[in-house]
Amino acid sequence: MKDKTAAALLAFFLGGIGVHRFYLGQTGLGFLCLIFCWTFIPAFIAFIDFIIFLTMSKESFDFKYNRAYFQQPIVNNYVPTPPTPPKDTASEIERLHELKEKGIITQTEFEEAKRKLL
């Protein structure tokens, strides 16, 4: 588990070569700091990281860098729906007959649906 104070100290003392990024598991950014360490831009960014780590709360640091060590909360959003009332067989056959009369379904589709209902 990564420590906020250790990350801040690494950023202050060895941040110019990206050691704090390697410590936090950000190897891509760590290699970028190593490649451009001669420009002193990574040292400037590491100093800003140092200040951010010092002002960041422990909870937000853990949320950002130690998320794998904490169990994710299980959110249960299941809302039961009431069961649908059984349909009246006679009204369903009448509805199918109207669909057949309008030409929406064929005679064979009507017969098959009626057979399923009965």
Automatic annotation (TrEMBL):
Q: Which residues form the TM2 domain?
A: 2-51
Segments traversing the membrane: 28-54
| Membrane protein topology class | Multi-pass membrane protein
Which residue ranges does the record assign to the SHOCT domain?
92-118
Taxonomy, superkingdom: Bacteria
Q: Which InterPro entries match?
A: SHOCT, TM2
Mind telling me which Pfam families this protein's record contains?
A: SHOCT, TM2
Q: Which UniProt keywords apply?
A: Membrane, Transmembrane, Transmembrane helix
**Compartments where found:** Membrane
> Which protein, by its recorded name, is this?
NINE protein
Q: Which organism is it from?
A: Sphingobacterium arenae
